[in-house]
Amino acid sequence: MGGTQQNVLHFLMLVSCIFAFLTPAAGQIRLAGSGSTWCSGRVEIYHSGSWGTVCDDDWDLNDANVVCRRLGCGTPVSATASAHFGQGSGEIWLDNVACSGSESSITECGHNGFGTHNCGHGEDAGVVCLGAHIRLSGPGSTRCSGRVEIYHSSAWGTVCDDDWDLNDAKVVCRQLGCGTAVEATSSARFGQGTGQIWLDNVACSGSESSLPECGHNGFGKHNCNHGEDAGVVCSGLIRLSGSTQCSGRVEIYHSSDWGTICDDGWDLNDAEVVCRYLDCGTALRATSAVFGEGSGQIWLDDVACSGNESSLIECGHNGFGKHNCNHGEDAGVICSVSLPKPSISVNEGQVSWGQNISITCSISSEFLDGTFTLKKTSSNFSQTETGSRSATFNIHRVDFSHDGLYQCQYEKHISSNTFSSPLSDSVRISVTVSKPNISISPAGEVTWGQNIGITCSISSQTLGGTFILMKTSDSFNRTQNSNTNSAYFNIPEVDFDDEGSYQCQYQESGPSHEFNSTLSDSVRLSVTVRLQRPSISLTSPNAGLVWGPEGAQITRGYSFVITCSINSTFSSGHFILSFSGSNLTEPAVNNSASFSFPVAEYEHQGNYSCVYEVTVSTRTFRSAETAPITVIIKLSLMPLVSSVSVVILLLLLLLLLAVWLILRRRQQHKQPAALIQTQMVVQVGNDYTWGDNEGDEDVYVNVDLHQKIKGEAAGVDGDWSDDYEEPVNDDDRDFKETDPGDYYRCPKEACMFVDNHREDDDEEKTSDAEDIFENVSPLSPVY
């Protein structure tokens, strides 16, 4: 009967503890902040349901010593101030802390009282413990067993196992607050590290406070590789099995084996040492065979702790392996720290209606036979999955009822008791319809005044929603309800106001609110005015136009007209006539314009083409250019014929004149010599001197041959005529007397001389139209 009552009492205590350990215990300490580690960081304490910091007023190494020892981090290296690890938030719980260094908790030290301070978070206190420079890592490692790594020169590195022994391991275990060394491991038993190998040939006596104080080759000096990484297993190693991280059957590591503790004399003081050692807060209960039976060794019995010890092996006991128990008496604990808060993630935060999604819940530690529960905050939706560290929840073909916030919780069932973790953070699932498709017809640039249509559609199977067509650049918005998966929007007689980019959206009403799809891609509506190519024609009202292979030939001086015309609904434009780099503009009248040229000149020669230009709603449009007409300006034939005729007549006159001259010359040659009067210079015996020029003698003989030639021409020897005029002044002349015989000889010689002289002149001056006449006086006898 007494046993039954005791079991009932134990059960009631367990139920009351389930609610108590969901929050951290008052006075619990943690190290946090930027760059913080297990054994260094901003000091924070839990009080009145929230975490708060400690002010650095009077903060020193004695205060830091209590924190480091409480956390199992060895002795303090420094007590930091001025928010060395960053500023905290929320409450500042303690100020003017005054520890002697022997207290088991910082709350036992002197201080102003919780929440009483004159500080800001810029004065948050922190610690750097000796354990901050050493850690145990690798596969299978725990807080007090693993591959030894030290921090040096801003990097973590391993220790080589050359000469590695228990003395070296003792220093590591003591530095980490893990009791004495049980084993010094080698050959990378806890896996190979990476990066630097800082120490080799370590030689500790076992009394050193830290590993770098021992003898070694120097940092970074070694002849090893990571296959020789050293490790430790410390005697103070404790774990909780069969439950959670902070509740379960107590087991300790000794002589290279795990073993349990007998429940004889097991009480809350013993449980307090275990919970503090595991950083699980304070003890809520010391249990007996609640978490199942262990196996192997039972290492301790009749454990007697005061509650202030740093490790269980420091408490009184019978000795390792000395007991009178069985595994039905295995001791356990329930600590105040609850199961760890799970993490939650979703493969896609925003999903389309009908899509499959998955949500994963996980915890940081491994437990057996736990249950993950996925809950929706706004409804009674709940799904469960079992798993040791994680579970995945698949939701197929989501609809609008799945939209909302989700959280995870982990639960552990032990001996009909359920331990639950806090709820995870929340993730949101937003259910939308699929992105609509959009198309425009006709595609591309459309003509002003044309009708166009825009089609919006979705691939989702949901029906009965509303399609919204919107324009990105203004407030244009049209809606259309549809019982199908598409809607057609007609825009008649488009103008420039309709230009722009358009998008579609699909809207569906859900249980609690409207669900909108994402916007579709955009389509652009571009409006233009299309003008036909104008026509061009050429006329000449006074028949001065002749079409030839090279173009239109216009007679110079004649008028011609170029007409441009177009077939267009936009009749308010104007035509531009381009030729030879010049432009002429005429407004369109009845879709045409005429360009008149009253007198064709050579500067009008060239290529002519037309362009039609019109302005619609402040925008100007221009047609394509017509094919050019080539205009050639030619000379009139009548002036040319007249000019040619005049030239011919002149040539004929010149020819007649030349013939007349030739005939006249020939006639002159045939006339008697008596008709030719010649004045000859005949050399005679007389010397005639002019003026004062001595030696220049000109001999002149005046001979009148007229009678003699005339007589000879008649065939009668007549007398010479005495029609002789005496010189006016004989003193001006000097005559030489000749005999009569010379008289008759001289005429003959003179005639011969004249004939010869005329023959030479004819040869040298045939082109000369003048005749050479020589005046010959009759030869008077010399008296």
Strand residue percentage: 25-35%
Residues in helices, as a percent range:
10-25%
Output the radius of gyration. Answer: 68 Å
Class computed from helices, strands and strand pairing: alpha+beta
Biggest sheet layout: 7 strands, mixed
Q: Which geometry do the CA atoms define?
A: elongated
- The rounded distance between the terminal residues' Cα atoms is 219 Å
Q: How many separate helices? A: 7
Give the averaged pLDDT, no decimals: 78
Low-confidence stretches: 1-23, 673-783
Brief synopsis:
The chain has 783 residues and is an alpha+beta fold. Helices cover 15% and strands 34% of the residues.
Set down the secondary structure blueprint.
Layout lengths: L1 H19 L8 E9 L2 E8 L2 E5 L6 H10 L5 E5 L10 E4 L31 E4 L4 E9 L2 E8 L2 E5 L6 H10 L5 E5 L10 E4 L31 E4 L3 E7 L2 E8 L2 E5 L6 H10 L5 E6 L8 E4 L30 E5 L7 E4 L3 E3 L4 E6 L7 E7 L5 E6 L2 E6 L8 E11 L2 E4 L6 E6 L4 E5 L3 E3 L4 E6 L8 E6 L5 E5 L4 E6 L8 E10 L4 E3 L6 E6 L6 E5 L5 E4 L2 E5 L4 E6 L8 E6 L2 E6 L4 E6 L8 E11 L2 E4 L6 E6 L2 H34 L35 H9 L25 H25 L19
Parallel strand pairs: 3-5, 9-11, 15-17, 20-27, 29-36, 39-46
Antiparallel strand pairs: 1-2, 2-3, 2-6, 4-6, 7-8, 8-9, 8-12, 10-12, 13-14, 14-15, 14-18, 16-18, 19-21, 21-24, 22-23, 22-25, 25-26, 25-27, 28-30, 30-33, 31-32, 31-34, 34-35, 34-36, 37-40, 38-39, 40-43, 41-42, 41-44, 44-45, 44-46
